[in-house]
Write a structure and sequence with these properties.
The complex is a heterotetramer, with two copies of chain A (348 residues) and two copies of chain B (612 residues). In chain A, 30% of the residues lie in helices and 19% in strands. Chain A has helices at residues 11-14, 35-45, 84-94, 106-112, 114-123, 168-175, 188-200, 222-225, 227-233, 286-293, 315-330, 335-339; strands at residues 56-60, 75-78, 99-105, 127-133, 179-184, 205-210, 234-237, 244-245, 251-256, 259-264, 302-309, 344-347. In chain A, a hairpin with a 2-residue loop joins strand 9 and strand 10 (259-264). In chain A, helix 4 (106-112) packs across helix 5 and helix 6 runs antiparallel to helix 10 (286-293). Chain A is globular and about 95 Å long. Chain B folds into three domains: 4-222, Pyruvate-ferredoxin Oxidoreductase, domain 3 (3-Layer(aba) Sandwich), CATH 3.40.920.10; 234-420, Rossmann fold, CATH 3.40.50; 509-609, Rossmann fold. Helix content of chain B is 36%, strand content 22%. Chain B contains 20 helices and 22 strands. In chain B, helix 1 (23-36) packs parallel to helix 6. The two termini of chain B are 50 Å apart. In chain B, 64% of the residues are buried. The chains are: A alpha/beta (348), B alpha/beta (612). Chains in contact: A-B, A-C, A-D, B-C, B-D, C-D. Strand 17 of chain C pairs parallel with strand 2 (75-78) of chain D, so a sheet runs across the interface. The structure holds thiamine diphosphate (2 copies), iron/sulfur cluster (SF4) (2 copies) and magnesium ion (2 copies). One magnesium ion (MG) binds at residues 63, 105-107, 134, 136-138, 145 of chain A.
Chain lengths: 348, 612, 612, 348
């Protein structure tokens, strides 16, 4: 559906509203859960995408986040734990005209579903994945997840977890993802923008959304989302813009060999020209990977925004091409001929 | 020397060589030639375990057994008339399959010390007395082939690879088979390598002439065409027929076929076959694992395609959770289990039918699914087609069971007319009025197949228990009970689609032999033999395992005893006993091998006469 | 006002509130207090579906049912004497569980319009006539609690969270329960937050005093201690007992315990519990999925640890392939399936016992495994301990089955003496002389547990069929058959470890009620009742499902009819019918709820008297 | 076992030979298969590692490569497809003194086993994984694998495969692998060196070995392994050395922003100083990642050697620490006390 450009949007579609995307089921997340905001932003942005409601399909695994499809008045499939990418791939393969969305959690996508995650990225179906990363298992009541920081004390790790967490952005990039972004449940405008960009990208779009689980992991991302700390601890990635951040846009990031370095833009020693300029369209994914690793170095701000956005052929498109080529070469399949192919003989 | 020509009813030949040695190829050639000549044929390839073992070793032997007959046959034969053994290991592995006084053709050039040792022979069996009960025909196959091809441009290695065609030439002479089919095949196969066409053609002819010329071969045999029902035939392997059945079902239903799979013996060739049909719009997707494979099939089904997945036991085990999802989501899906010998990795290149109860029960909770099983290569088409038809009609996953023996075996297939294939009606609703995702069709209890893209029918499904009619999530106790019963009832109602049970033989007799799956051939033949001897025994072969035919209980009452032969420890027997409280008796073989006819016969004897 | 004190035999109370409202906590407090007071107790927590729903909504109600008695009891009761409902939704969800004339305590402060609407009430049930059949006691719980705590430093929100303790104080008064246990618990729980200790203690006392003071409460009840076998007791939840049983088995065997798991309701709390025992050397590993979880357990077993994995139906389905590997590799492994209501994701917070046949048959090929099931919270310890013992003795994976009802229920447990626990002998061979990886112990057929690190015993195992004795890969047909039989025989021999079947009641009678798993309590009580009425009915409860006890066939012969009540569509019945050809009758409930005693009783009545 | 230093090797161990590691089973790979060389190099290097034979455990999945353990006269477990990392983790967790090796194929590790692969990397058990990458499914007779180049024609993809292949090195790095290397079946000395280094590294060691499947994918790596082409198409990574390659060591690789560039060392314009210097011990993994991506750019040589080798705490070590800490805090577990914990009461 993505190839419908906005100019060709039928009128009926343009008049859709958030309400049209709201299902009649009671929303059952804990009061205060970050999932509400993600739902609301999705419901708000969808009417703007210019495609009819019936062409949206939301597919999820299992987890708090994965109840999402029930609340969307679109086609939806709440599948099994970790397997949403596979079912979404089937949906898209069978009908490339649908706008297919995978809704998943950090456990769903990266723990049990890790394999499907990396393979979805490399196949580059035109599917959008929203990963609600709350760094915890919400639905099963608070065990650590593959994105929980090492040492995290949870019900299953009373002495602290001992596995190193994944960096979902790095993993997606290394798996071959063509669109990789991060956004925040508590930054509605940014979130809507990223969801829209993900939709517009042709190929698999991976969006990690930091999501607050106020029951089992409250405040996990407050450094990046709350007013007092946000500006100094995040850097918003904008294409072709230097990496500048801080309350007064007073800091920037330089490259030193392969290492990022924070510099002051007010001490006169550095100008924005010296900073790394973001290039989300870079074919080479080293920059994006480099940015994704900044999350780990102390003192560095957390990158938010689109890390990479590169057009590559989509799986379903190539499949269609093969089918067309085959039809051209061998002619449209003729069942009678197929059954009678090879060496046959008659008996009277 | 005057050669004799003798008319015989049938013959069984085994070709055996290193796995690179071409037995499968010449076996297939001989099969095709025999089929085209009008014989009934049945084949049994015997692949070595997993990997190509070093040349000359026992583990590397690849065999191809072929039976052709002027009568109707159902199995590739218990025992062989001719064994062509290309080296000592091939001899050692297969000699037990040669009947007393059978013809043993060996390439003596390959019986050097090293090869004998590799095969574990202490002394040369051609020189000691161990083979005296056979008609041994030693042939200098290597030397003769080199001789015949000495004027070609091939390297010695290339020349040696033509030995199999030399052997084929000999066998063609023995059974008076025209070689045209092989000539033609060589032309197509090596279209870009004319030197290979020439060389193999030369070898083929040389082998043929050799028999004509040498005194070693005194008699050749003729086998008249078998009587077949009128129609057009082709020789077909089980998995190939399965693939065609799937394509046919999708075409008749007017649906896209999406086949999600992950390679595994013996299911992979269905994937390979289907991958060739892109011009039918067939979308084969080799996925990262079996779960993803069934996942794409389920997603495709949700989108309105015919979603199919195929695997073998270990892979099917992995799919269980997702199949259960499709069950509760009530989506059409066909799951092909091409069984191999288990448990665990087991013996991947051997056959068995020990996954039946897994298919019935291998999912958490009450998860009823229709199960149907094919009986022979030519039956795969119709059976898998039927699986698709039921899946769509009843909106349910259906299990289609086959096994390695059927999958890799081949036999003549009466090609159906496309117009004669049962209709498969697909109704994608579009009417929004009163639409409910779990409102059921009255007779079949099928829910509507409302697919994404249909305006106004937006709805959500999932693996949580769903409220009757609305399909919303429900934790209501009574609703759960009702839904469990509804799902069971839906599968039970498929019984109405099952034709009355065909009894082969009298409907009242001493003994009923009840079988399912790939044992059909051996059981049917054994019963035929016993009936010919006037014994009071009949045969029922089940295609539908779940639900069982509704007359089966009645049918079984006509018999004093019921024998259930199975390549497992008694899985159908367990079901029959539980359902009908009948003290069914088992004949159970679990050796990775199909039944021999005589095994079934002697069990029948035992039961009829009490001989043990 | 003079209050009355009445001696009664038993009582059943239900606490119900929003899931954050503390019902589980005060339920547990009351349970502990009653247990310590010497009553027999049984509990049934009823968690809401999956996620915390908005306050006041039906979907968010959390309930805790508690029965305490001066007699021996086996279930948390069919119906309640008292219901404490903290809001309209709590009332609506649970009112059907309150007996006629039962006491209904409600927090009327929560019955505002908004809450009524959220609960789907059109009119206020406290004001219309819908509750006249109960003794309604409306209490201004919110106001009273605020009043009682007005001098504390807490915020209003914090104060409101103490309401549950106010209610607990009331119930303590009603049943003359000392509150010391709760005081103590508060002190430990809020060791770092003394203001909470104070506030909750105040609330508790205030609630208690309220009852003493107000006329709403005229009578309090006394329940004498029950008669227990002498010994030391503690109150225990099923999953906690399972965790302790695993630790105990590992300690008695002198082995490390490695527990691989992936969170899933209702199995997760075993993981949580075991994670607290690092000082016992327990290694809990939360893995990426269920396959990895069973994988680490298998690896640990190969290394010589006690490898255990736990999950529920959907996760168990994923483990099937790996369990099959452990089966053919003949490694000790314990697989805990804490069943929940299926199929598919089903109703994850509800109970069922519909995975029995999955455990028997959910693997490809012939894959026999011992299966044992626990019957009640206090039985989990012994049963899972037995699972470990069998696994090690016979070198086999063992399936331990529990269910959500048992896992989350609690009851008094007679704490065993460590020295009385059955020995678990582990013999890691070190002698290289004549060592063979698949040479079997004569009686048990167990193969040697030769672990890495042992010089001279280096060997390889795997999932391919293995040669008898040597364990090398083998494709030999006869060997395969032999191994399939050996593996089946090994499991069959466990029958020798099974004690004779205990018949509760006469060994010859009209009716035998045969049950397994978590239905024990309801079935036993129903049979007790019927026996007390002089009916000819006995009860056998099975711990061992595979193999079945060897005397079971004989035992059943003593009865005219056999009734098998199950929370599924008849899975044990299917096995019994197939094995013994007995026309066993089913009582099948599949509502995500345990049996009520009366349901079993009325089925017994029906069968004994033909009333329908 | 790795902490035994060579100085403390018992004599008996030192005298082990290749023969000691050779099992009595016939090796059943196709004649000419690259697996033979890997087996031989492993059997040759093991006696030098200074640990007793009985402490080695080889664990594999399913595939041609996975038959490897049968040929090693050590403890071995030929498990199920894709799951070897999990079983190996269990072995190591239960007995950290064992030297645990995972033998796997490109399908086994990256297709069905992809999830266990990435999680093994992040957990950093002290386990060595040798991945035999032949870019094909050997055992099931020639289907494409997740490392097969796009467009590959195989039995299952007669019109060419349409998924983008994984880069196993990138994936391992993004997953958190602490030791990542690549070697060649046809370079025995290099292979032995890398195997030894993998063994010596404490933490998960990932070694990708290019392996020729002469039956289903013959010559897939000949450009990198055969004399005529090898020097110009590979660059051998050596710690602290500049990236120099070519028949006459006449070419080098420079960094241009985030992009690698081949420069001539003979035209006078560049000296080795201008080249990228390899730092396998760099904490930051961007360099290693950057090197891993070089495989894809045309004209660049293929890096062979150790990409990254960094010490991080191991899972099994942290587990042991928790156990020790718990014992210290709570005392060695006392079963009698445990059973009698909580609120108990007596009945006479
Ligand atoms: C096969 C299977 N295993 C385990 C579960 C239990 N389970 C449900 S959701 C979940 C994890 C949820 O975590 P996440 O994906 O982070 O979602 P969140 O609830 O945090 O949004 C688990 C372990 C399941 N439903 N199915
Ligand atoms: C669950 C399961 N699925 C599929 C298979 C079949 N299978 C065995 S090995 C293999 C792939 C082998 O490829 P790779 O890992 O690259 O190893 P190679 O043979 O190339 O060394 C497959 C698909 C299996 N044994 N088990
Ligand atoms: S548990 Fe956490 S993630 Fe789940 S609904 Fe509640 S707040 Fe949200
Ligand atoms: S098929 Fe390929 S990988 Fe397997 S043994 Fe043969 S050459 Fe080696
Ligand atoms: Mg989460
Ligand atoms: Mg491979």
């Amino acid at each position: 559906m993505k190839n419908r450009t906005s100019s060709s949007i039928p009128l009926a579609v343009q008049t859709l509203t958030k309400q049209d995307f709201t299902a009649d089921q009671d929303v059952r997340w804990c009061p205060g859960c970050g999932d509400y905001s993600i739902l609301a932003q999705t419901q708000r942005i969808l009417p703007d995408l210019g495609i009819p409601k019936e062409d949206f399909v939301f597919i999820s695994g299992i987890g708090c986040s994965s109840r999402f499809p029930y609340y969307m008045n679109t086609y939806g499939f709440h599948t099994i734990h970790g397997r949403a990418p596979t079912i979404a791939s089937g949906v898209k393969a069978a009908n490339p005209d649908l706008s297919v969305w995978v809704i998943t959690g950090d456990g769903d996508a990266l723990s049990i579903g890790g394999n499907h995650f990396i393979h979805l990225m490399r196949r580059n179906f035109d599917i959008n994945m929203l990963l609600f990363n709350n760094r915890i298992y919400g639905l099963t009541k608070g065990q650590y997840s593959p994105t929980s920081e090492q040492g995290k004390k949870t019900y299953s790790t009373p002495m602290g977890s001992i596995d190193n967490p994944f960096n979902p952005i790095s993993l997606a990039l290394a798996s071959g993802a063509t669109f990789v972004a991060r956004s925040l449940d508590r930054d509605p405008a940014h979130l809507r923008g990223v969801i829209k960009a993900a939709f517009e990208h042709k190929g698999t779009s991976f969006v990690e959304i930091y999501q607050n689980c106020n029951v089992y992991n409250d405040g996990a991302f407050f450094t990046y989302t709350e007013k007092e700390t946000k500006a100094d601890n995040t850097v918003f990635l904008e294409h072709d813009e230097p990496l500048v951040f801080g309350k007064d846009a007073d800091k920037g990031i330089c490259l030193n060999g392969f290492k990022p370095e924070v510099v002051s833009l007010t001490d006169g020693a550095h100008t924005p020209d010296a900073l790394i300029t973001h290039d989300q369209f870079a074919e080479d994914r080293t920059l994006a990977y480099f940015l994704s690793r900044m999350t780990e170095a102390p003192g560095l701000p957390h990158p938010i925004g689109i890390f990479r956005s590169v057009e590559n052929p989509c799986y379903e498109g190539m499949m269609t091409e093969q089918i067309n080529a085959a039809k051209e070469q061998m002619g449209e399949g003729d069942l009678e001929a197929l059954l009678n192919a090879g060496d046959t003989w008659g008996v009277e | 020397m005057k050669k004799q020509k003798q008319l015989i009813e049938e013959a069984t030949i085994m070709f055996a060589s290193d796995s690179g040695g071409g037995s499968q190829i010449i076996g297939t050639q001989m099969t095709e030639a025999s089929a085209i000549a009008g014989n009934d044929v049945a084949t049994l390839p015997d692949y070595p375990a997993e990997i190509r073992a070093p040349a000359g070793s026992l583990a590397g032997i690849s065999g191809f057994q072929l039976r052709f007959s002027s009568l109707t046959i159902h199995t590739p034969g218990d025992i062989c008339d001719v064994l062509v053994a290309m080296n000592p290991a091939a001899l050692k592995v297969n000699i037990d399959k040669l009947k007393p006084n059978g013809v043993l053709i060996v390439d003596i050039d390959n019986f050097a010390q090293r090869n004998l040792r590799l095969a574990g022979y202490n002394s040369n069996p051609l020189e000691d007395d161990s083979l005296t009960r056979f008609q041994v025909i030693p042939v200098e196959l290597t030397r003769l082939t080199r001789e015949a091809l000495k004027d070609t441009d091939l390297t010695q290695r290339e020349i040696d690879r033509c030995k199999n065609f030399y052997a084929l030439g000999m066998v063609c002479w023995m059974y008076n088979r025209p070689m045209d089919y092989a000539f033609q095949w060589l032309k197509e196969k090596f279209a870009t390598k004319p030197q290979y066409i020439e060389a193999n053609t030369l070898a083929l002819k040389a082998g043929n002439i050799y028999c004509e010329a040498t005194e070693q071969f005194a008699t050749s045999y003729e086998i008249k065409p078998a009587k077949f029902a009128p129609g057009k035939y082709r020789n077909i392997e089980g998995n190939m027929a399965t693939a065609l059945g799937l394509v046919a079902a999708s075409q008749k239903a007017g649906l896209q076929l999406v086949y999600g799979s992950y390679p595994i013996t013996p299911a992979s060739t269905i994937l390979h076959e289907l991958a060739r049909y892109r011009n039918f719009g067939v979308k084969t997707m080799q996925m990262e694992d079996e779960i993803a494979a069934v996942g794409v099939a389920i997603g495709a089904a949700f989108s309105g395609a015919l979603g199919v997945t195929g695997s073998s036991g270990p892979g099917i085990a992995l799919k269980a959770e997702a199949i259960n999802l499709a069950m509760i989501a009530e989506l059409p899906l066909v799951v092909c289990n091409i069984q191999r010998a288990g448990p665990s990795t087991g013996m991947p290149t051997k056959t068995e039918q020990a996954d039946l109860l897994q298919m019935f029960y291998g999912r958490n909770g009450e998860s009823p699914l229709p199960i149907i099983a094919t009986s022979r290569p030519s039956d795969c088409f119709e059976t898998v087609y039927e699986a698709c038809r039921i899946a769509i009609k009843y909106m349910t996953p259906v299990i289609f069971m086959s096994d390695l023996y059927v999958a890799f075996g081949a036999e003549p297939w009466l090609i159906p007319k496309v117009s004669d294939l049962p209709a498969i009606d697909v109704d994608f609703p579009t009417d929004t009025d009163g639409f409910e995702p779990y409102l059921r069709e009255e007779v079949t209890l099928a829910r509507p197949w409302a697919i994404p893209g249909t305006p106004g029918l937006e709805h959500r499904i999932g693996g949580l228990e769903k409220a009757d009619i609305s399909g919303n999530v429900s934790y209501d106790p009574d609703n759960h009970e009702q839904m469990v019963h509804l799902r069971a009832e839906k599968v039970a109602r498929i019984v109405e689609d099952i034709p009355p049970t065909e009894i082969f033989g009298e409907s009242r007799a001493e003994l009923l032999v009840l079988s399912w799956g790939g044992t059909y051939g051996a059981v049917r033949t054994a019963v035929e033999h016993k009936q010919a001897e006037g014994e009071s025994v009949s045969h029922v072969h089940l295609r539908y395992l779940n639900p069982l035919p509704k007359d089966l209980g009645e049918v079984m009452k006509g018999f004093k005893r019921v024998l259930i032969p199975e390549l497992n420890l008694g899985q159908l027997r367990q079901l029959i006993r539980a359902e009908y409280l009948i003290d069914a008796i088992g004949l159970n073989k679990i050796q990775g091998q199909p039944f021999h006819i005589f095994e079934v016969e002697s069990k029948i004897n035992e039961l009829l006469r009490g001989d043990v």
